[in-house]
Every structure is written in structure tokens, then in C-alpha cells.
Amino acid sequence: MEYKTRRDNDIVYGEPLDLPDDDRGLGDFFYDACMKNSDKIFQIDGKTGRSETYSTIFQKSVRTAIEMRKMGLKEGDVITICSVNTMDSVVPVIAASFLNITIANLDPSLSLRDSVYLLRTVQPKIIFAEESAVEMVENICGQLSCKPSVVVMGATTKHIPFSEFLIEKPGENEFKPVVVRDTNCPAVLFFSSGTTGMPKPIKCSHRSLLMGAYSAKKMQMQPEVCIHVSSFYWISAYLFTMMAADCGGRKIIISKFDPEVLMSLIQKYKITLVFLASNVAYQLTKENTAGYDTSSLQNIFFMGSILNEEQLNKCQTYFPNSLASIGYGQTEASGFISVFCKARTTSLAKKHRGSTGLPMPGLEMKIVDPETETTLPPNVSGEIRIRSSSDAFFVGYYHADASDAFDSDGFLKTGDVGYLNEDNCLFITTRIKEMFKYQSWHIVPASIEKVIYEHPAVKEAAVVGIPHPVDGDHPMAIIILKEGYSNVNEDDIIDFVNARVLDREKLRAGAKIVADFRRTITGKIVRKDLRQAAIDGKL
Q1: Percent of the chain with pLDDT over 90
Q2: By CB count within 10 A, which of 86, 206, 234, 324 is most buried?
Q3: Taking every annotated instance into account, which residue ranges of this chain make up the domain AMP-dependent synthetase/ligase (predicted)?
């Protein structure tokens, strides 16, 4: 059935979200999923082929919960998992939900500085660490006052082995999740990406995470078989785990992206949904995707940053039976904000390539001039703001004020700039903090970057503003070239771009060709550092 939105006074409304009658916590959600699907396979190790059923995961999670309770953990305490995406990493996640213990996870690729800062903020009682992350965790603990216990998911002679958590426990057959009295209490503390400052812990409640999963269900996005690379540091890992569990689906577990591995797994396990960071889309080519049977694939979502339309169209040709699309989401919104999916929005997705889709069920969306607070009509860019009719948003920042995150009408200020077209499809152009002014004109980096990507030699591009004493900022392009284009120089790029953009968008600060950008662990370019390096002459 086609997905329907409506527009009223320049506010676009997604379909109503039919809420369940009960008010469950995450523990009840996972308990019910495991009971209903006990004999079905829940996850498969993509490297070894080893599989685990829902009943196996349930037993491991119950035993882990009992052991955590034995160690004195109680509702409201915080634990941390520091692990890439593995077969074990989901167990403490479910176990914590059974006890209404809050989770604040790390990714092993985070810097020591950031990791220490984050854990000083949340003060975990236990850190579950995969074997390769133990040294990192030890270095973190050496700088913490709370001195958490370390549980190693692997071999150890120094710390508590995770295997001790998994042995048979008294009372495990009678175990039931605790009753969550307030489903708006924080279940997970996610950390903001830190592209413009130190990350902040974002409090997502039981209810907000469940609403994110329910809205995906209404869009018919539930996967029979899915794959994602992200660890539980990211909300995407929670969202796709919940989407799979709710329909008795299975997850294929891999810890890092490799195009050939992905293609072989799609063919072998008949994967129906793939979630990838936008930056890895450039690694998918005609050569490494050809010859594989991908007919099972229904949806491939690219998220995390803007993906140029040319590469999106290439990816669509690599997966002809699926819908390749750019999704848009934020942790503060507990998952997807706008999306296209094959089951309900294929025709609009084909009509509006480059759009991030339609507002999710239960969401209201408007585009606002952030300087005047005026709501803008179709096809006019401004700040994207959203409101939930189902408590599907975060419940604040941990030990930090969140009042400025919402406007006077209760709409979340996303900080992203974009527009809604005449079909209510959303297009993302840039971040508010990435915009700069040239002679009082607002310069949107993505507008110039779109032209830069038309040059056949350009693999990736970022435009930043370089301070000028008279004009405000001058645009500079920072470029990564494709292999085989070493003969292309910076003047070639400048001439190409300046012939195709408005006068105010010309690359008056020039262009720089670099080997790579500094990125967050999701692949987002850290523009503030890139800009500063350009100003300091250190590119």
C-alpha cells in the first residue's frame, strides 16, 4: 500500500502511528520476541557460519542478567560495552534491558581522550570488552575514578571472563524482566557524533526506542534477514536488532565492511536489508558487485552523510531488484526521520533521486528560516524541524540542559538544512554550522560540492569557508582524487568549478588535493578540523 503524507500550513505530517495497547519496556520487548521465535535463528556469524537461535540468546542474556544482579547492579546503574559488532555484543544489551540497567557503549575505534571523557560522564559499573579492546579499556579505567569491573568477551587471565556469566544459574528458568514503571526513563545513553564539539550523552528511553522500531514496522521495513556493520555505540545497531527481533528475522554479523564479503553474504543468506554508512558506497563498484545473486535484497540504506546522486544511481544499478536510497535519521529522533522503502514508496524514490524520503509515521516536519522562525513553503531551504506525536524522541542530555534543542512549538531543531518538495519528499543540503557567508550571501557547501562531483576525477570533496578581511569567507574545495587521475591538479578543479557556479560560489580560496579527510567513526568529515587545517596551511 502506498505511503500517504499530508501538508497543512507548510507542516508535513507522516502517517499516524498506531501505538500498541501495552506500555512495555525494552526488556519485555526482547523477552516476548525470544519466546515467540524461540526455535528460529536470530544471528549468524558471517565469517564462520555459526548460528544462534532466539532461545540461545535468551538463555545467555538471562544468565548475564542474573550475574550482573549478583554483582550488585540495580535499576538506573550504567554499564558499557566496548566492542565491534560480534555475536557476543548483543547479549549484555538484552541482559541490561531485562534489569532496566542503562547502557552507554563505546566503539573500539574511538580515541582514548574521547573515551575517557565519555565514561567520566556516565560512570559505568561494568565494562564488557571484546578481547582486542582490552588494552584500550585498561587505559581508560586507569583515568577513571569509578573503577568499573572489566568483563572480557574472549580469553583473559587478568579480568573477569565473559564465559563465567554464561554458565548455568540458579533460578534462570523462572526469570522474568523487571517491570519498568516509567518507560520514559533512559534505557540507552548514545553519544552525539562530536563533529562540532565534545560528544554529549543523549538519553533515549524505552518508549522512544520502541517507537522507532514501531514506525519502521509501519513502513514495512522489517527484515527477514539484515546486515549492518555498526556497533552498539550507534543507534542503528539497536534499531535494526529490534526490527529483526520484532518479526522473528535474523541478523548476519560482520565487524567491518568489505564489498566482496558483503556480496557473498547477500547471495549465501538471501539478505533482504542492508544498512551502510554513506562513505562506504564509493567502495561498491561494478567489478566487485558483478556475478553475485542479489535478487533477495529489497532495501539498501545509506546513512550518516550526504551521498552524491551519481554514486547513488550507480549503487542502484549494482542491486537492480532492490531500492537503493539515502536515509535520514538522528539519535535524538530515536532512529529514522525520513526514508524511502521498496514496499511503500518505490515510485516516489525513483521520481526524486537524491531525496532522503518521506517523514516517518508519527512525525511532523517543517522547514524554518532559523533567523526569523518563519515556516517556509515547498522547495525553499531552511532548518529541518520535527515533532513527534508518540514520544519517539530522546528525553534530554545526561547531566546537560536540552531546552535549546526544541523550539517554542515543541519541534526538535535538527541543525540540518534542507527542503521539502511538492511531493513532501525531503532533500538535505548541509548543516547549519557548515554554512558560511560571502558578502552577506549564505553559501551552502553542498551546492558547490555537487558541481565538484561532476568532475570525473573527483572521488570525495568538501567545501569550507576561509576567512577574508573584507568578504567574510571565501570558498575552498578540498579534494580526494580517484585512482588513475594523478595528472589532474588543483587549477584544473578550480577552472572546472568556477565555470559552472554562481559568482559568489567561485573557489576564491582555491582548492587543495589531499589523501584523506579526518572523520568521525561513522565516516562523517570533521569539517571544523578540515577548515582549521586549511586556515593554518597544514593541508
Answers
A1: 78
A2: 324
A3: 32-398
Query: Do the domain assignments include residue 23?
Result: no
For 52-63, write each residue's pLDDT tens digit.
999 999 999 999
390 phi/psi in degrees, rounded to 5: -135, 25
The answer to whether residue 529 sits within a structural domain is yes
Q: How far apart are alpha carbons 410 and 200 in whole angstroms?
A: 21
Per-residue cell: 336: 529514522
Say how many domains are in the chain. Answer: 1
Q: What's the grid cell of residue 54?
A: 532466539
Return the beta strands (E) in 134-207 as ranges.
149-153, 160-161, 186-191, 201-205
For range 353-368, the mean pLDDT: 96
In a domain, residue 465? The reply is yes
Strand ranges inside 135-213, DSSP E = 149-153, 160-161, 186-191, 201-205
Which residues span the domain enclosing 520?
Answer: 435-535
Rounded-to-integer distance, Cα 501 and Cα 222, Å: 42
Picking from 352, 363, 280, the residue whose alpha carbon sits closest to that of residue 318 is 280
Three-state SS at 152? strand
The CA angle 16-19-24, to the nearest 5 degrees, is 155
CATH of the domain at 496: 3.30.300.30
Q: Do 416 and 195 form a contact (C-beta atoms < 8 A)?
A: no
Contact in structure between 480 and 460 (CB atoms under 8 Å): yes
Q: Please give the full DSSP string across 463-477, using - where no structure is assigned.
A: EEEEEETTTEEEEEE
> Which 8-state DSSP code applies to residue 517?
-
Q: Is the distance from CB of 321 to CB of 274 less than 8 angstroms?
A: no
pLDDT in tens, 86-130: 999 999 999 999 999 999 999 998 878 778 988 999 999 999 999
DSSP single-letter state for residue 328: E
Task: Tell me the chain's radius of gyration from C-alpha atoms.
Answer: 23
> What is the pairing mode between strands 186-191 and 41-45?
unpaired
In a domain, 448, yes or no: yes
